[in-house]
């Protein structure tokens, strides 16, 4: 991922059969598809640098402090909503809603429209995957079409009525075109929501299945940042990515020709026994947990890596502190995707079931 002999890949430079090239050419030009240019993840320098710089510049220390306060506020609100209930489903009720609210805040999307980010993110996730079926592909493309129109209008509004959102700063201070800004909004939406939701869900399940690790966090809350790194390592939200060889290369005894695609298994690298002792064990005190590659490496390192870490440390800590008796209430259900690993449902019991003492009627006089 740091080797300059390799670069990003996208459908336009992949060697695929003619029928697939025909289909790709007719799937809606201009859609903010997360796997098509000008999406950052499929671009190489110098275009990648030009597109990424305005976004990274907008994440100032002041902006990050504001986002941290917002994460605390939103987490508290979501937990307040759960408080009256004895049971919940923590993907739909918490793990999805927290990052959606934060991404909406970053993009300047009004709270009334934040549910649209959730819908577009869920429908678009299979487009990152391998072997998406026809119906899933159609839903994803339709969702991206709606997102394209919405984000296009958002860019127009932010140009005429600037606001203080991070994306608003990108719109007003950069020279990116409307199409490039629309694609940037799309990648911020997808990358900022999907992977964070998966991380939060995996963290909940891992800690509930390893109560001894959770007990250490309760005894020493300073361990939460490292716990998030270990969650990211052992259950990478993104399991794989691809690179394209720019030249003929020999690597680990294998010859690769220029133009060939290499699949990089991030989840496998994060369990490499040459890098991590007992790699399949979940250990929140692991000294080198942060050496994972869950966020990628090099110029394509995830834009929201720092934000995701903050959301994980704050959101998970607040959840387990608010509900100390949190327990699984059934088997969590995985999403069934190969690239984006996470849970679709996590049914839980928030608090012990309180039973009322049996009512005893007074003895009647005979």
Summarize it.
Keywords: Heme, Iron, Metal-binding, Monooxygenase, Oxidoreductase. The protein has 366 residues and is mainly α.
| The top level CATH class name | Mainly Alpha
Helix/sheet category? mainly alpha
CATH topology: Cytochrome p450
Q: List unreliable stretches of 5+ residues.
A: 355-366
What radius of gyration results from the CA coordinates?
23 Å
Major sheet summary line = 3 strands, antiparallel
Helix content: 40-55%
| CATH homologous group name | Cytochrome P450
Strand content: 5-15%
Q: What coarse outline follows from CA principal-axis ratios? A: globular
Ends distance: 88 Å
What is the helix/strand order? Answer: EHHHEHHHHHHHHEEEEHHEEEE
Q: Please give the number of β-strands.
A: 10
Number of DSSP helical runs = 13
CATH architecture: Orthogonal Bundle
Q: How would you state the average pLDDT, rounded?
A: 86
> Could you give the order of strands across the largest sheet?
1-3-6
Pfam families: p450
Keywords: Heme, Iron, Metal-binding, Monooxygenase, Oxidoreductase
InterPro entries: Cyt_P450, Cyt_P450_B, Cyt_P450_CS, Cyt_P450_sf
Protein name: Cytochrome P450
């Amino acid at each position: 991922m740091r080797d300059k002999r390799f670069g990003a890949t996208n459908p336009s430079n992949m060697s695929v059969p003619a029928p697939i090239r025909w289909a790709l050419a007719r799937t809606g030009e201009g859609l903010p598809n997360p796997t098509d240019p000008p999406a950052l993840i499929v671009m190489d320098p110098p275009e990648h640098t030009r597109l990424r710089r305005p976004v990274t510049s907008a994440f100032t220390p002041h902006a990050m402090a504001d986002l941290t306060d917002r994460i605390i506020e939103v987490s508290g609100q979501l937990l307040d909503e759960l408080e009256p209930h004895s049971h919940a489903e923590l993907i739909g009720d918490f793990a999805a809603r927290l990052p959606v609210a934060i991404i909406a805040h970053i993009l300047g999307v009004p709270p009334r429209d934040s549910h649209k980010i959730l819908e577009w993110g869920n429908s678009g996730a299979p487009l990152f995957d391998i072997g998406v079926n026809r119906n899933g592909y159609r839903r994803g493309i339709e969702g991206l079409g709606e997102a394209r129109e919405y984000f296009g209008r958002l860019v127009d509004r932010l140009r005429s009525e600037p606001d203080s959102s991070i994306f608003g700063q990108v719109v007003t201070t950069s020279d990116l075109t409307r199409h490039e800004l629309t694609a940037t909004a799309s990648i911020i939406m997808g990358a900022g929501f999907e992977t964070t939701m998966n991380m939060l869900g995996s963290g909940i399940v891992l800690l509930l299945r390893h109560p001894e690790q959770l007990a250490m966090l309760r005894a020493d809350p300073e361990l939460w940042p490292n716990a998030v790194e270990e969650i990211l390592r052992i259950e990478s939200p993104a399991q794989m990515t691809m690179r394209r060889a720019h030249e003929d290369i020999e690597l680990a005894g294998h010859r690769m020709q220029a133009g060939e695609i290499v699949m990089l298994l991030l989840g496998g690298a994060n369990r490499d026994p040459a890098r991590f002792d007992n790699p399949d064990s979940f250990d929140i005190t692991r000294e080198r947990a942060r050496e994972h590659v869950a966020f990628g490496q090099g110029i394509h390192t995830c834009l929201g890596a720092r934000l995701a870490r903050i959301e994980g440390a704050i959101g998970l800590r607040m959840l387990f502190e608010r509900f100390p008796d949190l327990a699984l209430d059934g088997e969590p259900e995985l999403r069934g995707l190969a690239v984006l690993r996470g849970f679709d449902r996590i049914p839980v019991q928030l608090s012990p079931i309180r039973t009322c003492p049996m009512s005893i009627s007074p003895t009647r006089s005979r």
